[in-house]
Fold these 3 entries.
Entry 1:
Amino acid sequence: MSEKMNEIRQAFTEKLKKAVNTQALEEIRIEYLGKKGSVTGLMKTMKELSGEEKKTFGQQVNVLKNEITKAISEKLGQIKQKELEAEINSVPDFDLSAPPVLDRGSYHPITLVQRECEQVFKSMGFAIEEYSEIVTDYECFEALNIPKHHPARDMQDTYYLTNGQLLKSHTSAAQNAIYKKYRKALIEDGKPIKAIFPGRCFRNEATDACHENTFFQMEGVMVDKNISISNLIFFMKTMLSEVFQKDIKVRLRPGFFPFVEPGFELDISCLICGGEGCPSCKHSGWLELCPCGMIHPEVLKAGGIDPEEYTGFAFGLGLTRLAMMKYGIKDIRDLNSGNLKVLSQFTAE
Ligand code: DAH
């Protein structure tokens, strides 16, 4: 019997030496340790032996079985290591110098106008801030002088989370956080607060060519001593002239927003007819573009800024609207459609 065992041991050692991959190794394992394997076969012959012989034989078979199991697992480790090294050292089967097969992507029209606006405001010393899309009721309404049950909330129905938070209905929702972030520098170092914060906004409304439940705005604020409406007009006019690459005339009309006092609607001279009057501007010569105003004292207070000492302006530029005007996009729904035929037409100038 022990002769038989030695034969098996020798044959196994020979075969193991020759195994070069995991598959060959698995075949060997089955050949020796599998259900019909040689070692398993030895076990089966045990029943022919008497008590004492059975015991010694059983022990020897177990030793052999353990040897084989250990040898296979060691060899498996070596093979895997070799395979890994080979993979690391292999030359990639793609040509890095080949020209790209796919067309290059293009920027979304809103990204394009957003970047342009950011560039202009940055050059005028404004910080660009990012703010989350999920906000609290306080940030979106209360801190903006819109208490619970105020009718101004009706215009801004949005999507609510089960924990009471909501998807911001306007970028004004970031104002409070911005004031709190910069108030120390304003009060202690006399640095004016100048920040813009573009972002995605949401409203629970039926969609059509002019309305979307998801759109983009860019809010801007400036707070310092002696800030007046003329500062507001100057910054808006400069920014719009840069974006449209021509001198833009602006006018202010009264508008009501609880977080500004006085509040305005800022119109620009019609881009199509230059102010003469045409169907695009409903023959008025003006296009409504950007609500704005002087920040309400209560809003400054909520941000920890003394309204007796500081004043400021705020505006909420509709980036989606601006992109539509700039690129002549007629249906707002194209912007969120993911339709590349439409969206890939726009390139940075
Ligand atoms: N948050 C307003 C809206 O989405 C727009 C707005 C109006 C923003 C006046 C302002 C502002 O900063 O001063 O309807």
Entry 2:
Amino acid sequence: MKRIRSQCLFKEAQRLLPGGVNSPVRGFTSVGGTPPFIESARGAYIRDIDGNKYIDYVGSWGPMILGHAHPEIIRAIRESGKRGTSFGAPTTLEVALAKRIIKLYPSIKMVRMVNSGTEAVMSAVRAARAWTGRSMIVKFDGCYHGHADHLLVRAGSGAITLGIPDSKGVPRSFTSATLVARYNDLSSLKKKLLTGKGKMIAAVVVEPVAGNMGVVLPRDGFLEGLRELTLKNDIALIFDEVITGFRLGLGGAQGLYGIRPDMTCLGKILGGGLPVGAYGGKKEIMKMIAPLGPVYQAGTLSGNPLTMSAGLATIDLLTDLLYKKLDSSTEALCNGIKEAARKHAVPITINRAGSMFTIFFGGHTVYDLNTARMCNTNRYSRFFHLLLNQGIYPPSSQFEAWFLSAAHKEKEIEKTISCCWRAFGSL
Ligand code: PMP
């Protein structure tokens, strides 16, 4: 497969943009090689500027649950655009989307739209600090909550891929109020609560199903334990559902596991492929947000009409039946991949939650960052390129999730399995 135009453009892009990209993992740093520059996408496929076509398992890192360029969403964006692209004033669209969110997420009584997942979590933490009058927060090793200074501590995603556990440019004082516990290990949180710091903790923030150290599922009792411990200690529990919201079901991970956090952060699917974030939760916390309360948070383009239209069109197309189909097509794909790996004696572990999964290269169970890190990333990189060259586009890091969309049908699943078969054979 030739990618000459992408190679030339990547060279030029590297002179103009840091690493040639606008978000680190796009630069193929961990797998090496040249990222294809994408010209267009439709359904389950993306096409690069050299005319190569790939079955896409990145889905813009989560948002594209209905596949690319879904006609209803494109129509909604086009119609909305005709009426103007930004007003900086209230619209009916924001109210309509807020209503949908509040109906689907019973823990959310009031919501604020923002422009990214980063903004959503940063703002939710600020609100939780104001509500509790405390300053410290607890996050978990390997969970990524966007790139706000105080959350860039032992983060997953690009931060593990690039081996930068903590970013330069973040003063130590900014992260001194951030404590880190181990994912799936309640005792590590309990220890923090027992120290004098317990009464200073405002919030525990967690990805209820982690997607940023690869997919890692919560063990039985982990989320329930978090709810219990935070309630007992008057700490706000924040679910970062930027990935899992509308991905694991209409009601996200909290709907699936039956847990009500105090605050929830959303993003990705909520914007139907346009930039978005949202945070919401208990009324008494959300009432603290300006202009109602003393917590300042604002945004020139927040609640943007194009985004709201795309989000509404997306949510209105998501049904329980669609999630059932997504679950069974992803299960079929994962079973096929496991069988192919077994036949070629390549030890892998697949962690899957609905339509998101990760193939970990290593036969051990992966339940936290340490076990994720034990994987053979060189092998993943080789596997990645063997697939890419056959027209399959997986995430360019061992520590990211593969996402299926409703446009991935039997034909795409079968082709992907046979490409994996050949890739495992060549490893
Ligand atoms: N939280 C989680 C769980 C995420 O996966 C991400 C991004 N992948 C973010 C927050 C940050 O979202 P954004 O990239 O939109 O700022």
Entry 3:
Amino acid sequence: MTKATLKIENQVYELPVVEGTEGEKAIDITKLRSETGYITLDSGYKSTGSTRSAITFLNGEEGMLRYRGYPIEQLAKKSTFLEVAYLLIYGELPTEPELEEFVTKITRHTLIHEDMKKFYEGYPAKAHPMGILASLIGALSTFYPESQKSEMTPDEIDLTIRRLLAKVSTIAAWSYKKSLGFPIMYPQNRLSFCDNFLYMLFAQPTETYEVNPVVSDALNKILILHADHEQNCSSSTVRMAGSSQASLYAAISAGVCALWGPLHGGANQKVIEMLQQIKDEGGDVDKMVKKAKDKSDEFRMMGFGHRVYKNFDPRAEIIKKSTDSVLKELGSNDPLLDIAKQLEEVALSDEYFIERNLYPNVDFYSGILYRAIGIPTEMFTVMFALGRLPGWIAQWKEMRDDNQPISRPRQVYIGETTRDYVSIEDR
Ligand code: SDX
């Protein structure tokens, strides 16, 4: 086995080197503290691996992304979101009977307990749907107490997973209906996952609603592209919360909250707000690029840059093409798409972005595609969560199957050294 040597205060230590199936190398520091008394420090975990994983491989330099070895370009073109969900969670593409059972179970679990409708009454009219999603997913663990057991049987785990994949689409669609003051639409078992979500989102009780196949296909594609992304902020949150043996619902609720941040999944909403601002202020993309480069300005070009991709984000490329074709097929155009393309062109020829390897990420065009299929801006991050759900579940399941210990990082203390209490009169 290859070893790394570390010299500390004239003492030489040997640490094992781990190599992944794609040639990635890591120094295993599991025993570092017990052998040397030292820990490592890596704010934001830029050089720290938290786990071995077999779910998703991405190569930031090559702009490569594969789910269980399958390139996302092939899955986006040939697969369905629920088939990809099965692949991520169980590790293999399902056989026909396996897919049939998975889809049927999910279809039959899309209803949520009638008492959960009362939660919606309590939110303010303009409640952000991510806040509703996080709390209602957490609340699912109270309606299904068996999900709280730290030792669930495989069947209980499978049922809990199917319930979650089914009910999140209903919870998400109903949060949108509630935000408009519209009546909620119950799920229809005769519809596919994507068609059903679009139905619950856009149908009205006063008229028949026909799902547009172009829109449904675009939704299927964008959900697949969001399905997993290895140890990103929200997936790591799910693993962290799940490592204490909190229920799957509690861990996923934590992941939803982490995704909500504007530096992570919340960026897709911020991108549209940024593009709209450029449009409202006369379309001057150079001004926005200048603002993004100004260190005295905390503004960042939303939808640009990535912790791992130091080349193009393969998902952004596919979403950009899909947005073009959906807008063409629907016979509509979106001025924000033209502004986005101009912004991309200006930024990618600018030294500041080039030397920092800042390219459009998954969030840069996704908002325009969501708009093209009729999804409102405040629902964009909910769409990201809906897409990422199978990935979060897969990461949680892998962590449990590997019997990983509770996550509990160390720290370097930089506060006051010991001192005695001073009574208030003497302060
Ligand atoms: C997602 O991790 C994942 O996989 C996430 C995700 C997934 O699928 O789960 O891919 C989804 O979250 C995509 C990212 C969405 N967020 C945004 O679009 C927000 C804007 N992007 C940035 O905030 C930033 O690029 C991050 C958060 C995405 C990455 O930040 P890093 O890796 O911590 O990089 P950094 O902040 O250290 O930046 C390095 C340099 C800095 O400049 P210097 O100090 O070196 O001079 O690049 C600059 C930053 O100021 N920079 C930007 C910028 N992003 C980085 N400058 C202007 N605009 C930006 N968008």
